[in-house]
């Protein structure tokens, strides 16, 4: 159990289909104590159904510096130092996830960047004083960052920014003994993905490209995340690890 005694913050569980939930399960399996953050009351209700009584649930809306500050202040007061953080948060208005990229609005572009890319920096800043040496930060990305995937549009652009953010943040955090990486997950049916126009075709196409025709699971992504937040991954810095059963190869 390589996360025995480790306290890990998990951001982004919306329900039991969430990639963050796959991360939570894998980390629990490795002995971690979990602290969940949720976006709003609606998400809290879903999360409360999944979490165990000993888990800590804290509100954190990443569009608000005050909410982030309050959340990490509460984490420090309740558990003290932490050993890792999973950032599995993204959002775009539905109308920006389809049609022409030339129709992306200025507001929609800024919002997607704010929640899906900038938030990693804002959260890392708040978490930095709490993260012990040997801790890991992991974020979630998608190969729409490096390829033009139909309809992924504004989120692909935000994921490109997020991956660059991983590299710059990793270079900084390495100096305090914290390794930062991203996982590029294969397409999985979640709440977030259902905002992408024609998402069923995206998932079908993605599944058909895996070696066995079966898509990657949140549990498989979670297992890699568990490794990447742990001290076992101290030598992996600023990387994007593909967990998509080889879809990106073909
Ligand atoms: N599902 C996929 O196919 C896939 C593939 C690769 C990467 N990803 C990425 O994985 C991550 C998790 O997404 P998911 O697919 O599990 O979907 P999900 O809908 O289960 O999770 C997205 C989470 O983002 C949170 N969020 C949105 N706005 C927020 C805000 N302002 N403050 C705090 N939290 C906020 C939501 O509450 C939700 O919990 C995202 O970064 C997503 O882009 C998903």
TrEMBL record:
NAD(+) binds at residues 12, 18-19, 39, 61-62, 89, 159, 188-192. Its EC number is 1.3.1.9. CDD domains: ENR_SDR. It is an enzyme of class 1 (oxidoreductase). One of its GO terms (biological process) is fatty acid biosynthetic process. Pathway: Lipid metabolism; fatty acid biosynthesis. It comes from the Bacteria. It catalyses: a 2,3-saturated acyl-[ACP] + NAD(+) = a (2E)-enoyl-[ACP] + NADH + H(+). Keywords: Fatty acid biosynthesis, Fatty acid metabolism, Lipid biosynthesis, Lipid metabolism, NAD, Oxidoreductase. InterPro entries: Enoyl-ACP_Rdtase_NADH (IPR014358), NAD(P)-bd_dom_sf (IPR036291), SDR_fam (IPR002347). GO terms for molecular function: enoyl-[acyl-carrier-protein] reductase (NADH) activity. The active site is at residues 142, 152. Belongs to the short-chain dehydrogenases/reductases (SDR) family. FabI subfamily. Homotetramer. This is Enoyl-[acyl-carrier-protein] reductase [NADH]. The lineage of its organism: Bacteria, Bacillati, Bacillota, Bacilli, Lactobacillales.
């Amino acid at each position: 159990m390589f996360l025995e005694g480790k306290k890990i913050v998990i951001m982004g569980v919306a329900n039991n289909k969430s990639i963050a939930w796959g991360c939570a399960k894998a980390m629990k399996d490795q002995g971690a104590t979990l602290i969940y953050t949720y976006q709003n009351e609606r998400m809290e209700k879903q999360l409360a159904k999944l979490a165990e009584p000993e888990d800590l649930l804290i509100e954190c809306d990443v569009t608000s510096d005050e909410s982030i500050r309050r959340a990490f202040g509460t984490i420090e007061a309740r558990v003290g130092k932490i050993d890792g953080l999973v950032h599995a948060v993204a959002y775009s208005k539905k109308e920006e996830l389809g049609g022409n990229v030339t129709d992306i609005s200025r507001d929609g572009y800024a919002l997607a960047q704010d929640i899906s890319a900038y938030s990693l920096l804002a959260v890392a800043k708040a978490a930095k004083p709490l993260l012990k040496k040997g801790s890991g930060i992991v974020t979630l990305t998608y190969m729409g960052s490096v390829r033009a995937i139909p309809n992924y549009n504004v989120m692909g652009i935000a994921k490109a920014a997020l991956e660059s953010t991983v590299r710059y943040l990793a270079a900084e955090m390495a100096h305090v003994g914290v390794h930062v990486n991203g996982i590029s997950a294969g397409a999985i049916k979640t709440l977030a993905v259902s905002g992408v126009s024609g998402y069923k075709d995206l998932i079908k196409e993605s599944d058909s490209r895996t070696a066995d025709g079966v898509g990657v699971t949140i549990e498989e992504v979670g297992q890699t995340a568990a490794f990447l937040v742990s001290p076992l991954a101290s030598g992996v810095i600023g990387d994007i690890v593909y967990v998509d059963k080889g879809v990106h190869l073909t």
